[in-house]
Amino acid sequence: MKVIVLYASRYGSTKEIAEFIAETFRRQGVAADARSVGAAPRLDDYDAVVIGSAVYMGHWMGDAVEFVRQNRAALADRPVWLFSSGPLQLGQEVTSTEDPGLEPKEIGEFREAIHPRDHRVFFGALDPAKLGFSHRLIRKLPAGRDLLPEGDFRNWDDIEAWTGGILRALAVPAES
């Protein structure tokens, strides 16, 4: 069994999630690689695929969307799981990462095209020192720090549990 965990990450948080997922696979004896969608190898070399993207303004990053669209046939022929990373906190309108309102706009299209086994939203992380110019400007606005709070909001236990579900679906025995 060989799995590829692909990601699109602007500031590194999504990349770290993908690397954690790949390492969790490896601890269970599954050959797994984590790579950027821009440096993705041939999918024919893998039995299963996990793809994650940072989410901005309700959308996956463009290179991740383009990767899925360009590799639609290969992805539809193997088990695929999707994850999104982005919300930093929940608000009055959204009280759970399972809220359909957090689902990026492209996920419906992907469900029809490649039939992923699951899509999960994970909290992200924000380090102001890594922000690009436009995001630094947003944080200077009066409400910007509330919109983009500093901190690491990722729930590693939740990510590990989700990865365990993938391992079970692939019929990989649990580590004893």
From TrEMBL:
It holds the Pfam family Flavodoxin_5. GO terms for biological process: heme biosynthetic process. PROSITE patterns: FLAVODOXIN, FLAVODOXIN_LIKE. It comes from the Archaea. One of its GO terms (molecular function) is menaquinone-dependent protoporphyrinogen oxidase activity. InterPro entries: Flavodoxin/NO_synth, Flavodoxin_CS, Flavodoxin_dom, Flavoprotein-like_sf, Protoporphyrinogen_IX_DH. Residues 3-167 form the Flavodoxin-like domain. This is Protoporphyrinogen oxidase. The lineage of its organism: Archaea, Methanobacteriati, Methanobacteriota, Stenosarchaea group, Methanomicrobia.
